[in-house]
Predict the structure.
Amino acid sequence: MRVLGVDPGLTRCGLGVVDGSPGRATLVAVGVVTTPADAALGERLVTLEAAFEQWLDEHQPDAVAVERVFSQANVRTVMGTAQAGAVAVVCAARRGLPVVLHTPSEVKAAVTGSGRADKAQVGLMVARLLRLDGPPKPADAADALALAICHLWRAPAQARLAALAVR
């Protein structure tokens, strides 16, 4: 399975693609899309949309994993993150790709074993799991890869549970 992980943000949006299955992951691509903080919101969202479409075209993922927005003290930051994430969801939905939202603590737990891990721990474990020389930089890139890994490892178990619930 190939998964595109999206760590949404208006200023920096992490994108990471991994191939694999539960317990095994291989890096395909990683990057960060940036938009100028002084640009108009619409312009920034269009830039993100173009980048998402390019990554979807180039990497042909089977699924897209996006970080679920959670409440923060800064409402402006939450809104920008939610808007960037929504653009990723729309781009994937246009192509009929399954989209799953994972919480930050779910991703941390999947990658490090602790839902309270800090950014440095996530980066180190992503590097270890993907057999990289060091953590991807900036942290948005490592977080996008962590989202993709989380989905690879959690999606099959979630599908089995859903199938059991139907019976």
User: Anything to note?
Assistant: Residues 12 and 25 are 24 Å apart (CA to CA). Helices lie at 41-59, 75-94, 104-112, 119-129, 139-166. The longest strand covers residues 24-34.
